[in-house]
Amino acid sequence: MPFFIIFLQGLLMNYEDWPKSTVTEQKSSEDLSLFRGKSQGRQAWHYVIVPQHNFTIVQALKGNSTANVTDLGRIVQYRNNRDEIKNMSGWGDNPPRIIQNWLSTHYSSAAVDENISLTDTNDDIRLCTMQRAIPEQRLEIGLHYFIPQKFYYIKLIEDSPSSLARRAGLKSYDRVIFLNGVNIENDSPMQFDHRFDIDRHCPVQMLVCSPATYDHYKANKMNFSCDLPSVQRLKPIYATSTSNSHTDIPTVRFDNETFYAVQWESSNIISTVPQSAVFKSSEFTNINDICIIEIENEQYQKGKIVFRGSRDECDKLNTSPISLAIHDVSNRIDNLSVREKSSISGLTVEKFLCSLDGTVTTSSQKLQADTEPKEITIHNINIGTQMSSIIENRQDIPNGSHAILEDLPNELFYYIFTLIDIQDLYKAFWGLNSRLNNIFQFCQNLSLVFDDKVDPVLMKFYAPYVTHLVIQTSTYCDFNQFPNLRVLTLCIENSRQLSQIHPDTIPNLTHLSFLSGSQFTLPEKLTRQIFSNEFPLLGYVNLGRIKESISDSWIMSSHLRFVSILSCRPMFIPVILASCPNLDHLQVHVICDDNTATSSSQVNHPLRRLTLWSDFNELPFDIIDKILIYTPNVKHLYLQTIYSKSLIDLAQSLINRLHNLSQFDCHIQEMLGKDERIHDLTNLHQVHPCFNRIQSIEKEDTCRIFVTK
Predict the structure, then answer these.
(1) What is the mean pLDDT of residues 502-522?
(2) DSSP readout, 8-24?
């Protein structure tokens, strides 16, 4: 029991005696040591700050040595919660846990050893660069944080004779100032560790200095920088093996036929470099690796490997010569101009502000600056479309002034970019400056027509920005290259392409269309995924045939708003409605049969628009009516069919069934002879206003065609 009490006393401490603040300051050349022994015949302990010149003496002390701790250094003093200054000493074998924890947050081990000189003669600042062979490879250094003065330093692992750190020029107790171009002096230890974790795939570049240089700069309030003239820029080194301690195995071979396409750091310029210029062992160099590259004699720059191949293949990706691409694009939009419409005394004056080539012309009449919002209309003569925006408080441009490409507003670029093929767009604008790159990346409607002319090597650079993809060839296209793909159209049936249409591959898919004709049958698995809400954002589908027998496996797709099916029996339409409870528009090519349309679908489906057509077979009214039973809320109906009865009877029946009908469009071939026809369409127009646009085209004696104008 007495032993247990003594043990508890060692763990516990009166709150009023707890340390509150430090009194004894620690220098980087001093070490915190715990001395245990006997004093006056009792077990005692003392925490002592030991200066550098006594390190060797302390290390030589044995377990049975006798020493006066005040001769070895200063006993640590602290201020307790009574505001009393106390020595960090006590009776017993071990200090209380509260003392140990407090010291670990206020003091550190020495940031030098007995061999380090603290006399500053010349600046010793080094920029050291290391390239791992693999991300898991260690540099063989220990990272330490000196708490009292808040700086980081390193210690080399002694038994690693050719580690990356040692070969790069790092030394034990070097102070770390910059890591990969970022000043880390104010980083917390957790932040500093995180930088190493996230950048393991990159070259490690450290700006370090000796302890003497660090103390000199801090004492004189001087700042460190990678651009200081005294910085020694040591030659980068790279590992030729995956070993941690032996990274310099001379087995690397370079050839004169392998080149890399490199995208430079902080730039989108791509250049071709030989394999020998890349400071990374060729056997460990992969696409998307970030490496140090020698650009000229002992001048180095970071770059990302984007392609590996022959010089000619790499030169295709070179983005420096962009003038031809820009000229090609400018030919497409020569007619683009911006016009301002200002009303003066009831008159409208058109004033051309600028054209794409930068020339500015104004009307001869100088207009006063108007503080009211002015409407700007952008005309493109070739396209025939307009885009309007409101620009507030714009000052008039004086006569004779000039505008450059960068002066155009972002909205205009967004519009222009949607008119240009993305391949030409990438060649012309990508890499010019960061603003155009950002506009390129944030364009919402960049489309790519994938055909046999597309360069697959170049495509991977702009593929991440494609939102609309049209496949017009049987050549395989990897959909994983398009992480932002939302709209997909397949014009050719191809099983390899179809197998890629999966929620995991295209999670953001909103529109899906198949333009392979009415004989194309959608795969069963894909059909089930579409009608079971496995594509969570999919709202628009244009399908071919679907196998009706698998509808029992459908769950429900609440996001589908538009469905088009090129071959469907009337009895299956209610099944589709039941699977799409929020459908707005259903478009169906109806194949007539003798089956009755029956389903568990709700009889009051909210469908607002219905398109029914049959090219060669008649859609009799009883079939049409059985479909309309399930869609009483339809407001817009399009009907295309052959019809063997009077159209006025059909019109009256439609109005009796669809009380909300407000728009009717049709292309109906009426199979009645001249003697049976109603030649005056007034009665038809009087059935309901939605039939007022129906016109009659006399074709033959046996039929005529009704269309809406």
Answers:
(1) 88
(2) HHHH---GGGSEEEE-S
